[in-house]
Amino acid sequence: MDSTSSSKKRTALQPRRAVGRQRVAELLAAASDLMAEHGYEATTMAEIASRAGAKIGSLYRFFPNKEAVGEALLQHHMAIVHDEYEALAKRAADLSPEDLADILIDLLAVLYPRVKSLPALMEAHTDRTEIRDRSRQQALAGISAALRVCAPGLHEQTAGDIAAVVLNNMKVMLGMTLKDAPTTPGAPDELRRMNRLYLSARLGPCQRKQMAGNSTKTR
């Protein structure tokens, strides 16, 4: 996504009415589908409008160019991922390490249909390295936060190390789901089992220590 020309620096229109917001959502969904299928460069504004069942003028009303579509879609995807990790952290206190492991291992695969054009957008972005690093740090911070809520007392650095391992497992599971990584029919279940055992071993002692401390305080 080249952003050097002055015309491409124009930003998307933020609709105030519900009907406008719905139209923008439909246009972004169409753009996401096309970019996931064909890549950013091969996707045209005319194709986006056609896929969304909209007139080309409607698309240009909200987005002056494809650069604006891509930027809006990238921010939309990043917000979805952020909200998902934030919601998980709020739930983590009521989860066992095994339950948290099950949610995390499938999280990227569950999110993929909603952010499927993210890889294409990152690849096309002029600051792709910065965007990839930001996305990775967002994921690591989200996983680490959930780990520390689930197992109070877990050291921040240790949580970060565990998060890196879990994120790699999550990427492998996504690859298996998309058939981009070597897999067999039973391999995903084996990966889930491995992730459960790992988090049980790493978070279980902290969780039990916290429970014991709480029990002592109530006596």
Structural write-up:
The chain has helices spanning 18-38, 45-52, 56-62, 66-91, 97-111, 118-124, 128-150, 156-177, 187-218. It is mainly α and 219 residues long. It is elongated and about 60 Å long. The protein starts with 17 loop residues before the first helix and ends with a helix.
Keywords, separated by commas or semicolons:
single chain; 219 residues; elongated; disordered N terminus; HTH-type_TetR-like_transc_reg; mainly alpha; DNA-binding transcription factor activity
Radius of gyration: 21 Å
Note the gap between the termini.
Answer: 62 Å
Principal-axes shape call: elongated
Which blocks of ≥5 consecutive residues have pLDDT under 50? Answer: 3-8
Strand content: under 5%
Structural class: mainly alpha
SSE string:
HHHHHHHHH
Count of alpha/pi helices: 9
Mean pLDDT: 90
The portion of residues assigned to helices is over 70%
Q: Total number of β-strand segments?
A: 0
For the sheet with most strands, the description reads: none
Give the topology.
Elements: H1 18-38, H2 45-52, H3 56-62, H4 66-91, H5 97-111, H6 118-124, H7 128-150, H8 156-177, H9 187-218
Helix pairs in contact: 1-2, 2-3, 4-7, 5-8, 5-9, 6-7, 7-8, 8-9
